[in-house]
Prior knowledge:
Elements: H1 13-16, H2 18-37, H3 42-59, H4 65-89, H5 96-123, E1 144-150, H6 155-166, E2 175-181, H7 186-195, E3 198-200, H8 208-217, E4 224-227, E5 233-234, H9 238-242, H10 244-248, E6 252-256, H11 266-271, H12 282-294, E7 305-308, H13 309-314, H14 325-335, E8 339-342, E9 348-349, H15 356-376, H16 387-399, H17 403-419, H18 428-450, H19 458-479, E10 499-500, H20 502-529, H21 534-557, E11 559-560, E12 570-571, E13 575-579, E14 585-593, E15 597-601, E16 613-620, E17 623-635, E18 638-643, H22 648-657, H23 677-707, H24 715-718
Parallel strand pairs: 1-2, 1-4, 2-3, 6-8
Antiparallel strand pairs: 4-7, 5-9, 6-7, 10-11, 12-14, 13-14, 13-16, 14-15, 15-18, 16-17, 17-18
Helix pairs in contact: 2-4, 3-4, 3-18, 4-5, 4-18, 5-12, 5-16, 5-17, 6-22, 15-16, 15-19, 17-19, 17-20, 17-21, 19-21, 20-21, 21-23
Amino acid sequence: xxSNAPASADTPLLGRLPWLRAIAWAVTAVLMAALVIAPLTLxxxxxxxxxxxxxxxxxxxxxxxxxxxxxxFLSVIASSRYMYWRLTxxxxxxxxxxxxxxxxxxMAELYAFIVLLLGYVQTAWPLxxxxxxxxxxxxxxxxxxxxxxxxxxxxxxxxxxxxAAQSIDWPRDKLKIFVLDDGRREEFRVFCEAVGxxxxxxxxxxxxxxxxxxxxxxxxxxxxIAIFDCDHIPTRSFLQIAMGWFGKDPKLGxxxxxxxFFSADPFEKNLGTFGTVPNEGELFYGLIQDGNDLWxxxxxxxxxxxxxxxxxxxxxxxxxxxxxxDAHTALxxxxxxxxxxxxxxxxxxxxxxxxxxxxxxxxxxxxxGMAQIFRIDNPLFGRGLQWAQRLCYVNAMLHFLYGLPRLxxxxxxxxxxxxxxxxxxxxxxxxxxxxxxxIFHANLTxxxxxxRFRYLFWNEVYEAVLAWYIFxxxxxxxxxxxxxxxNVTAKGGLIQEEYFDTSIAKASLFLLALNxxxxxxxxxxxxxxxxxxxxxxxxxxxxxxxxxxxxxxxxAAANETRQLRNAHRITLQIPATLYLPDGxxxxxxxxxxxxxxxxxxxxxxxxxxxxxxLAVALYRGETEFRFPATVRFSRGKRLGLAFAPLSFEQERxxxxxxxxxxxxxxxxxxxxPRAAVHRVIGHIARIxxxxxxxxxxxxxxxxxxxxxxxxxxxxxAAVGAKEPT
Length: 725
């Protein structure tokens, strides 16, 4: 395996001496195999499990990557022993029902085991690449075409991205901006002409976003292509951060930066976790992509990236064979021996999906696309990839096959509670002795590796919500990869009223009902049926109660909260000056801002009339920009302002002072503190309880509406009423 990490004097001895590394790997493999297959009695297995878990706890107190690798080693031993035991000692079953259900659970566990091992390969040693400075001579800087594809998004979403792109610190004669409008809208053409960027259309919408970009490639000439989704607002420093590595590596085809979202995604909004719990995407952009970079396996993610034109054209442009055109394009580059790079520095920020249904639709597209690649261009086969690259790609594709395994885990204990089926043919004590070390070590190790980017157990909430919806399209794509179409993720919408999305929640509600029935069956077995198998009943009941907690959080996620702002408020503390009509100037600090206004904290109480006109100044370095505004509210030291209509120059200046600041998003990146296990479990349990309360409240109100007779309409109310259309 080769990696992007260069050897140096600081590289460990094993990294500089291949023969010594080979011996170390051989000794490790022999030792691991001996530990994995060694037959042990129950007491011996318990003793070994306790010993290696204590060792892991001690090692976890030390910093550094060697300690992380040691914990991974212990975790792999514990998990491998469990899987070896499952395969060799727990599958001897006479009952056909037990065998069928047992094989299903075993397949789910094998899937999880493989994903665990591949995840360790990806995340054990993030490269942590740093930016390379551009040459001092600006004349040597290359030309860049910046593409902003759009289809049905409103202009209010796109305009901030365009104005921020114009603010990027790059020579004006070397940067051209193109709005690729597949909606062919007149208002977009007028806007682009007014601000001085190119409005590009085509006479068809073939291949969706990929086709849109490929069409633009034929009519542009820049040496490099920067691509931004139309809601991703770039910072001024984007190109200077991203472009340096291209000058250092002529075979570098793509540089990717993180996708950062300044608005809450549906999980964060509906569960109230925005800013306090790492969201669903932070693990990928915070850790996995950085780990992929070590193995030269960084994925192109469709936005916030730069591609070298010659290499992009050599692979046939943006891939059109699948609906995840971005990752497939990177795979094609890697097959031809080109490199990719990842810089874990947020240089843009965008809008997350507003509704859970929109979020599910987006994930369905990703899952279907990865399954399509797995079928038509499987990275395990074909030429051009190193083995580490193959493993990184395979893990990304296997991840989106979690639908069926997650559904199996959410229903597996019901097999015993309902039918008395032994899906694991072993005593409860043996299951505890082998399964608990596997679970504890995997969670402890992943908590250490992922701590700032993913809290324990939250992935189970995310996956449980999506499992049923992901399972169907991935299965179809594996059977026939040509089925399915590209769906655009809606951004910038409003949710006028709070509502419970029964359509999205129906799978969770069905699983909830099954697990509640499972609890009832388990209590019945405790009382009347299984006096000789009490431990087994309690084991399955405990598993079922855990599933209920996860499913309760899923139900809470389906309770859509209102989103009434077209412009999202963003917390930001920067200096500001308030200019009153009488000429008085007051120094203050912003508390938050949006494209429509801002909040201001003043050093002393101030009383201003609502709608009073004034001006507020923000700063880019030492340069002051004044913006006309009116008072929305005035409460002591707190002031809310609404911007008056701004010119394009003022809008551009506002973007430069706020969303295009080079430091604004980087300061918020990966700053989640590590959370203790009991706090995470307690938090999810509280959210689950809220989910149950909201669900029962929704159905209680719905029942009342059905029982309550409709009020008769008065003749006066009917006057002027329109006929339904």
